Every structure is written in C-alpha cells, then in structure tokens.
Amino acid sequence: MARRDITAKPKDTKGTLRRLMRDFKPQRKALIVVFVFCFVYAIISVITPILVAIVLNNFLEVFRADPNTGITNVDWGYLYRYFGIILSMIVVSTIFSWASTWIIEKVIAVWVYQQREKLKAKLDRLPLSYFDANQAGDILSRCTNDVDNIGRNFASVYKAVCSSIVLLIGGVIAMFIQNWALSLVVLATMPLTIVIVFIIAKQSRKQFRIYRAHYGELESHIEEDYGGQIILKLFGQEDHSLQVFDDVNRVMTEADRKSQWISGFIYPTMRFTYNIGFVAVSVVGGLINGSNFGDLVAFIMFLNILQSPFQQLGQMAATIQSMLAAGERSYALLDTPEQEMDKPDSITDGSSITGRVDFENVAFSYVPDKPLIEEMNIHVHPGEMVALVGPTGAGKTTIVNLLMRFYEVQGGRILLDGIDVRDYARSTLRQSIGMVLQDTWLFNGTIMENIRYGNPRATDEEVYAATKTARADHFISTLPEGYSFVLNEDGTNISQGQRQLLTIARAIVSQPKIMILDEATSSVDTRTEKAIQDAMEEVMKGRTSFVIAHRLSTIKNAKLILVMNKGRLIESGTHEELLEKGGFYADLYNAQFLGNNPMDASAEETQS
Fold first, then answer.
1. Domain housing 293
2. Are the CB atoms for 524 and 535 separated by under 8 Å?
3. How far apart, in whole angstroms, are the C-alpha atoms of residue 564 and residue 549?
4. What is the CATH number of the domain that holds 45?
5. Residue 348 belongs to a domain
6. Rounded to two decimals, what is the model's pTM?
7. Tens-digit pLDDT profile for residues 113-160
C-alpha cells in the first residue's frame, strides 16, 4: 500500500468546514441560542468600559470636598448605582456564558453520537477491498479519535468565534462613540496583531497534520503488536517492534512539540502588541485629552477587549487546524465509494437454492495491471464436494471471495442455480453459504453466543447438535461454565484447535446450502482432524462444498478436484483420475511424501 503524503495541505478545508456546519444544521436552533447568549456576554463586555469611564470621569463630583469644612463628601448613592449595575452585568454575563456552555455541550454530544453511527454504518457498506488497503488502526482512529477531537474542540471554537465577532464589531462602534481619536490609535495596533496570528497559525498547521496522520499509524502498530504477541516473542522481534514504535512516536512527539511551541508564541507576541497599544493610548490620550482620565482607562480596556478575539483565535488556530484535519479524515472515510448496492428486484428468498455453481469465463485481478484469474470456467453440481488445490497465490481463496461477493468479478459471471450471483441480495447469498476459515475469529462473549452468531434464531438444542457434529461438545463440557464460559477477545483463553472447532460449529448452526472450508483443519491434531473429517462428510451430505487444502490426504474423497496455478485451472478430476494423468497434481501428491513440494516452487515462480 502506498504511503500517503501526510505533510500535504488539506485538500478542501473550506469544504470540511461547510460539511461540519451542514451536519449541525438540524440543531441550528440550539446554536442560535448559544450565539445569542454569546452576543449578550460580548455586549456586556463592551459596555463595561463605558460604565467605568463614566464613573472615573465623574470622580471629582462623586468625591466632592466641602470648601468650608474641608471634609470630603462621597456620593455613595451614585457609586452604589453604577457599581451595582457593573456587578449585575458581570453576574448576568457569567450566567449566560455558563448556559451557552451547557447547551452547546449537549449539541456536541448529539453530533458525536450521530457521527459514530454514520461511520459504523459506512464501514458496514464498504467493500472488503477497503479494509485490505487500509490499516485497521488508521480506520479506528478516524472513527474514534478524530470524532472525539472534533467533539472536544468544537464547543470552545464556536463560542470563541461567536463572541469574537460581537466583541470586534461592538468594541469598534463603542470606541468611536466614546472617542474617535483614541479609537484610531487602538485600531492602528490591529494589523500587527492580525499578521502575527496568521503567520503563527500557518506555521503550526503543518505540524498538526503530521501529528494527526501519525496517530493512526501508531495505533495500527500497537494493534498489530498486541494481536501478534506470540509471533513477536517467538522470533525475538521485541527490540525491532520497540524501534518502529519509537520512530513513529518520536515523529509524533516532535510534531506535537513544534505545533505547541509555535502556537505558544501567540500569547507573548500578543502581549507585546498590547503593551505597544497601551503606551500609544497613554501618550496620545495625555496629549489630546489629558484631563479625561476615564476615557484613558476605558480605551486601555477596549484595547484588551479587541485583542482578546485575536488572542483567542490565535491560541485556537492550532486547535481549529487539528479539528479540521480530523474532520477531513472522517469525511474522507464517509466519502469512500461503497460496494455496489443490491438490485431493487434482487432475490431475497434463498430457501429454494440447491447449490449448483458455475463460473463462466470469469476474470479478476486485485491490481489492474496484474491479472490473477482469466477465463475461469468451473461447473459444480448440487451436493458435490469440490477441492481447490494449488500454490500460494494461485487464486484459490479468490474464487471463494468472488462466490461470496466479497469482490465483484471484472469479467464473465458466476451463477448460483443458473442465476447470476449479482441478482441475489448479498444477505441472501451469504446466508446460504457457511464458511470456515483458517484464521479463526471469535469475540468476547460466551461460547453459546459465539456459536449462535452464525444463526441468532438457533435454539439451544440446535447449538448442542452443531457442537456434537463438530466434535466440540466434549471440550466445552470440561470448561468451568460449559456453554456459558466467557471467551476473551479472539478466544485467547482456549487453544487454537478448540477455537477452530467452535468456528466449524458456528458454520454448521447456520444451516447453509453451500459449505466452504479454507484449511479448516490446519490447526488441529491428527486425531481431531480425522474426527472433523468424518463430521464434515456428514455435514456436507446434500450440500455443495468447496474445500481449500494443502494436505491432499484430506481431499481424496472429493467428487471433483480443481488444480489451480497462476489464476488458471490447469487440471480437474477425481483423485484417482488426476494421479493417472501424471500431471501437476500427481507430482504434487507424490512430492508431499518426499518433502519436495512443487507447490512451493510454483509459488516462488509466481511471486518472481
């Protein structure tokens, strides 16, 4: 898989922002209320300096000395009235700020819930090729960390943007009403503030993209390592694994450090411009209006108010970039082309399927320029056991994937009971097929739940019958809680062979019309293998069966053996017929007892 350019600029930042706004549109009433609350909070912040100026400009009248006695008389009523108004406004603004936070957090919670639902539903509709081409950790990061990133940061960003707009517009208007000359002095410091914020934000943007991209890579590495601990320790690759982790972690740490370091310049540089503005307002105010002390204080407060939005947005520039990068990755998953939808008139009743399978001139390749299967023709009658043999990469599992419609054929067609498999609903087609893979998959839950996963409507008696047929009932009865025994994730608290027996029982309980066994007995001992073979012969009676096997001793009784090499069917027939031909299969069968397997040689030839 080609590695993406993680340092490239976002392809559509504006589009991502528009999509976020569109996603929040159903909750626009709540967002409008939040904006109103932020508006009230900002207006109060703008009015406060004016009230302070009024109090200070009337300072001499409030504290008036009696010329006869020299005693200073304080107009307490005036002070109580104005300071009471100021205090009340501060309390009101605090309440509105708290209420806006409470509302928007609820809005965010709803969005996060809905986004996760969308992503989960999207993953269910994606073709298998998407999961083959993308790291599991990266997919997981898009569905969890990226969504959480947006959820954590959207509230603060939205409130900051809403209040900043009002503070800027309201602050400028209030300043010019108060004193136009000092207003020009304050505004003269704004271009420097804007330039500083945008330069720093631009520099930190790249580092945040690197950080978010490597986050998914690190998760994939951790998931792979913990999932393959046995192999990791077996080959003594702990140091190598640690080195890979350390390399990715170092890049992430460095990107995080640089982004935070660059963003950290915002506050001190903003304070620098503030101090310049403070000096300018003090000097100019002293020259043109030195006696009006209240205006000077008010404009110093206005200077702080007008710089606050830029400071907020500057400090959040990195957060906004991180949020948009997360949104872009999340939406990229949602925009991934889905598997072709079932036809409106697709067949949804599979009860009459008998299991006849025909491949007619089928062609397929995973990579456009590297054909794998070409002009494949196979005809299987109902109830026949068909064995697929051949070297690694010959296309054996691919045939099964095409039959299951995990991948779509690129030429020719596959027929089930004379009907193109594309005319069946996928659920109907797959419910008609039972599949046991070499790699077992079990989830955290009881044995009963894992087996019933193949058929949620199966009764306890049907589950018991399936485990007996799969020869799994004996070991289940030895477990502490029997069928209620809880399996760990991937069933790691039972043996590999026992896990395989459970997957076979799970396939049996689904009562399929077609059975597919992909090296199903490769993880069990010889005695258990013989028992499973006997059981599977019973299960496969009356069912069409495809068996992929390297151990040719397990497929001697197959009705038809298909020998594949380089995506082509090179031989077919029964075990005896193929031995008589003395071809590839005969060489293969004889070589298994001599230790020189032509399958391996052919595989090397194929790979070369």
1. 24-334
2. no
3. 12
4. 1.20.1560.10
5. no
6. 0.69
7. 999 999 999 998 888 888 888 877 788 888 888 898 888 888 888 888
